[in-house]
Write a structure and sequence with these properties.
The protein is α+β, with helices and mostly antiparallel strands and 79 residues long. It is built from two helices and four strands; from the N terminus they run E-H-E-E-E-H. The strands form two sheets. The protein has a two-stranded antiparallel ribbon. A two-stranded antiparallel sheet has the order 2-3. The radius of gyration is 18 Å and the shape is elongated.
Amino acid sequence: DIVCAVNLQHDCMDSKCITLTPHATLQERVLTTREKPVIHHKKTPNYFLNTFSIHNYTSICAVLPVSLQETPLHVAAQN
């Protein structure tokens, strides 16, 4: 059974995903000469799981190991 959905974000900073590949863009389903840079993600297990802003916090924390339930990042409030 599916209990909840989660949103994972790839950690490009720690994975060092810096390679930009130019890709042609489409306009009204027609290929144009305009290009946009697209990041080529490296295959790593580094992802962000933001458990503080989602509705399924309890369900997700129930299946996470204790080491992943820690909060390694804390941003102090600015005055």
